[in-house]
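U., I forgot to send this yesterday:
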Amino acid sequence: MKIGELSRETGVAVRLLRYYEAQGLLTSRRSEGGHRHYDPEAPATVARIRTLLAAGLPTKVIRDLMPCFVGDGTELQACVLDHLRTQYAELDSRIADLTQARTALGDILEASARALTRI
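Result:
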């Protein structure tokens, strides 16, 4: 399958497919004319990449996880679950930090609004 076909089938822009390939997430072989050709499993691979990106994982981590899939879905081998738990804990920490920053910004906005009403 050519890159345009893969793009149409997955709904992912050609530019992103090239990026995934450059990041080592997706592989293709080249024709004599230099055109990319993807294996029939490529749409499933792209779906996995999109699922992991939506879960907040960086491409570097996704590249490490790609060989660890079980079956056709998004289930991963048990050997990578600790790594995923670490990523999950990091997301929780970032959420807590953002919540704290949001609260602080809200306090500043409220104080500023009160100061403006006194003027």
